[in-house]
Amino acid sequence: MSTITSVAQAKPATGFILTNANGSFLAIRENTSRYEGFFVREESNVYRVIAGILPEGTAEHVTNRLWCVERNRTGGVAERYVIPTDANAVVYTISKQGEIQLLLDCKKIYDNRSWGRTYNISTEEQCLVIHYRKINDPREPSGIDAGGEYELFVAVHGKPLEALPVNAWVRQDCVFDRARSSPPFERYVYHAATLKGTCFVVAASTDKTHAIQTAKHVFARKERVCSDAESSCAAFMSEAQLPSSFETAWMCAENALRMTLSKKTTLSAGLPWFFQFWLRDTAISARAFMLMDKPLVAKKLLLSMLEDSQGKMKSNTSSTLDAIDAPGWIFLRLGELAQKDLLSDEEEQLVIQHAGTYLTRVRSSLTNGLVKNEALETWTDTSFGADDGRKGCRIEVQALVLATCKTYAFLTGTHHPLEQELIVSIRKNFWNGKLLLDGVNDKTIRPNIFLAAYACPEILSLHEWESCFDEVLPKLWLSWGGFATISKESPLFTKEHTGEDNKSYHRGDSWFWINNLSAIILHRTNPKKYKQYVDKILNASTAELMTLGIPGVAGELSSAEHLTSEGCWLQTWSNATYVELCYELFLKK
Predict the structure, then answer these.
(1) pLDDT per residue as tens digits for the range 157-195
(2) CA distance 81 to 549
(3) Residues 252, 496: Cα–Cα separation, whole Å
(4) Rounded to whole angstroms, what are the CA distances from 425 to 98, 357, 362, 459?
(5) Boundaries of CATH 1.50.10.10 in the chain?
(6) CB 486 within 8 A of CB 508
(7) SS (H, E, C) 269-335
(8) How many CB atoms lie within 10 A of CB 307?
(9) Core vs surface per residue 263-289: b (16+ CB within 10 A) or e
(10) pLDDT at residue 386 above 90?
(11) Is 406 helix (H, G, I), strand (E, B) or coil?
């Protein structure tokens, strides 16, 4: 088992994330955030619980062992964090007994209301028990989401454990949120108690008895909890051998996928704040599990979404936004499973049925022979100012429908009538002899052309794809090793990440998942000609995964101007496509 060590001089390493199969996670970042701390998932809700466990001394050195995290502080103090594989709790161990401040911020993850928050502390069954209650309060500013009323119980247990209640409110500056232009920029958290001991467990639940029992049970078997966490991590890793300079990063990306996979075989889009199960993201990420010798995981992920496949699908289970390309990604991945003979006869018939129904529905709703989407239905699902959110007929959407046709043809031995009709319409409306347009009558240059080539390379010949790539590379390429999400010549292009306001989100920001898939396509098209681009993308994605943001997990995106780690701290499809890129370059036979 490899060890990832991140050292920062005179300040802590940028952070770390640990999770379990219940969907609970511990997210720590150097720049304080409303999304930092220990979070538990109960049913469809995610609650922030711990805002800080603060011993004496300054953090100096972090070692991420994938199954646990160790942190050294001044004065020779060493901490260790472990998340049990099957319990909503965190095990905290420290090498020297001293005063440890326990800060809580119990809330539903997106509930930023300030008023109507009460905490009560008691001692029950050898546990420090904190009862949190959130009530609606008329003092809350208008426009703040009510969020309803709820309660949460936090139990702290250890032997020995001294707990001195503090019962005070402390202002916490949300440095990271301020940098993202994501208010509120400060929040008062609850200083619950000063603890003394060398090991304790913090558990949380909406049921008090369950919180207490969990804390005591986990503490009683804390050694087994640690060994189970280590074994679970080791068992997940594939046995692939990569060049030494990329092997640890590959392992970290695999582990990041493990951390977002739940025991219900659902895949969170990212952590800490994209904990939902997004259909497009899941389908794109599913191939990585095939490459990691876990095809059953990929199959469960994809088949679980098959019942919902239709002309348009919701982008995630709680969203009102449609994702017009989600069905295409699902059927593309199912086709890959079928080609490896990993679907049973019954499963193949199910795919045929749903793919046929989907293609017939799409064919009946074509606009001038093409698939049309509304605004914000493609993966570039944000708008800013006067832009139209890519409404119209978009190239990668057509390609993904063709990918579904290919899956249907492979499974049935016959071609759906839509397949040839759509290829003819694409070449007529998108191909101008040297470039495949992003949209009908839209010459805006975006990296979606690489998605089209990935989904259905048969649209063009190899020579024609080279022509396309030679045309777009100067307009999209970023010298550090990535692609802008819109041409650098566009008036919409924004070179620095602007945070939550969407100005740069799909108008300049460079997404690691797109970069990784683009490198795969460039390598497949002409490995010698495009080697410098592929190498730079691989090196940039590796550097971000290992040294920027949260070391050991791939983040969401970078500013266009220079390589950074912005957005969500752990983005699932960034890690999945990194696995896929490494496989393409080093393992594919």
Answers:
(1) 999 889 999 999 999 999 999 999 999 999 999 999 999
(2) 19
(3) 27
(4) 71, 21, 14, 11
(5) 237-587
(6) yes
(7) CEECCCCCCEHHHHHHHHHHHHHCCCHHHHHHHHHHHHCCCCCCEECECCCCCEECCHHHHHHHHHH
(8) 9
(9) eeebbbbbbbbbbbbbbbbbbbbbbbb
(10) no
(11) helix
User: Do 258 and 280 contact (CB within 8 A), yes or no?
Assistant: no
Of 266, 375, 256, the residue nearest 41 (C-alpha): 266
Q: Phi and psi (nearest 5°) for 39?
A: -125, 140
Q: Are 279 and 305 in contact (CB under 8 A)?
A: yes
The CA-atom distances, in angstroms, between 222 and each of 65, 219, 566 are 17, 5, 35
**Nearest C-alpha neighbor of 549 from the set 27, 174, 9:** 27
For the record, the structure tokens of 42 come out as 């109960």
CA-nearest of 199, 197, 128 to 167 is 128
Mean pLDDT of all residues in 346-361: 96
Asked whether the beta carbons of 84 and 223 are under 8 A apart, the reply is no
What average pLDDT does this structure show over 551-572? Answer: 97
List the structure tokens of 81: 């964090």
By CB neighbour count within 10 A (0-12 exposed, 13-18 middle, 19+ buried), where does 526 fall? middle
56 burial level (CB within 10 Å; 0-12, 13-18, 19+): middle
DSSP codes of every residue in 159-181: SS-EEEEEEEEEEEE-HHHHHTT
Q: Do the beta carbons of residue 84 and residue 222 sit within 8 Å?
A: no
- In a 3-state reduction of DSSP, which class is residue 398? helix
- How long a stretch of residues is the chain? 589
Angle between helices 512-525 and 462-476 (to 10 degrees): 140
CA distance 220 to 238: 32
Query: What confidence tier does 531 reach under pLDDT thresholds 50, 70, 90?
Result: very high
pLDDT category at 68 given cuts 50, 70, 90 is very high
* Residue whose tokens read 């208010």: 183
559: left (phi over 0), alpha (psi -120 to 50) or beta: beta
Q: What pLDDT was estimated at residue 278?
A: 93
Measured N-to-C along each axis, helices 244-260 and 279-291 cross at an angle, to the nearest 10 degrees, of 130
Q: Looking at 6-15, 315-324, 394-403, which range is the least confident one?
A: 6-15
**Quick check: 111 and 134 in contact, CB under 8 A?**
yes
Cis geometry, peptide bond prior to residue 184 (ω within 30 degrees of 0) = yes
| pLDDT score, position 62 | 87
Q: What is the CATH class of 237-587?
A: mainly alpha
Q: Which of 60-64, 232-236, 287-291, 319-323 has the highest mean predicted lDDT (pLDDT)? A: 287-291
pLDDT attached to residue 319:
44
Residues of the chain with CATH 2.70.98: 4-233
Cα distance between residue 311 and residue 325, in whole Å: 9
Architecture of domain 4-233: Distorted Sandwich (2.70)
Q: Is the dihedral of CA 336, 341, 347, 352 positive or negative?
A: positive
- The answer to whether 389 and 383 have CB atoms below 8 angstroms apart is yes
Residue 315 has pLDDT above 70, yes or no: no
